[in-house]
Specification:
10 helices, 69% helix, DNA binding, GCFC2-like, mainly alpha, GC-rich sequence DNA-binding factor-like protein, putative, single chain, flat
């Protein structure tokens, strides 16, 4: 009887944790205002930055439950609902302000590399380190598909930066941002795309 009671208590605890995380994800709102809107309203940029920071911290906190909750639950909360449903739409809407967009994308990648480093094989790129709970998907070659929207966002920033070159902005001004994009792609193991960035922006550094 004690074993049954303990199992029931554990099941209730897991439901409570899952419900709490689901409610937190549903509650948080990351504005998708354009840079023009944020410049027009004095407090808009502060609100957007605060909500973005909250969402990134929440995503990282969800990852901390990787040993407790089921993989599909964590994947849905952290990736589908939060990262792709709320965080990346915000970044896409500020791509015209490419410097801020790059900085916020770096924060996303950094938040995904803060956990589980000791347990993960050294060959797995940094963007996966927080996603220890995605190890099975990674081994089945599905993780690349699940994280492709994040890569697409980085590539979009590369195209935005390239348009600035076409408008007359010098390579010295865009080179630093291009290097940061290349670094994120390398961490994601997207070497072909990283080489393309290096070629387009004439970056000479080795990977």
């Amino acid at each position: 009887m004690k074993g049954i009671a303990a199992s029931e208590a554990l099941a209730e605890l897991l439901v409570t944790i899952r419900t709490g995380l689901s409610e937190a994800v549903a509650y948080i709102m990351v504005p998708t205002w354009s840079p023009l809107v944020m410049k027009a309203e004095p407090n808009a940029a502060l609100v957007a930055a605060y909500q973005f920071g909250m969402s990134v911290r929440l995503m990282r906190n969800i990852c901390f439950w990787k040993e407790i909750l089921a993989l599909p639950v964590l994947e849905k909360l952290a990736l589908d609902d939060l990262l792709y449903g709320k965080i990346l739409p915000h970044v896409r809407n500020i791509t015209s302000d490419v410097q801020y967009a790059v900085k916020r994308t770096e924060r996303i990648v950094a938040s995904l590399s803060g956990c589980g480093q000791a347990q993960m094989p050294h060959k797995i790129p940094a963007v996966f380190l927080c996603f220890h709970f995605l190890r099975d998907i990674y081994c089945k070659n599905l993780c690349s598909h699940k994280l492709q929207p994040l890569v697409d966002c980085v590539l979009l920033l590369g195209k935005t930066l390239e348009r600035r070159l076409a408008y007359g902005v010098t390579e010295s001004e865009t080179g630093g941002l291009a290097r940061r994009l290349k670094k994120m792609l390398v961490e994601r193991n997207e070497y072909d795309s990283a080489r393309d960035i290096a070629r387009r922006f004439h970056l000479k550094e080795a990977f």
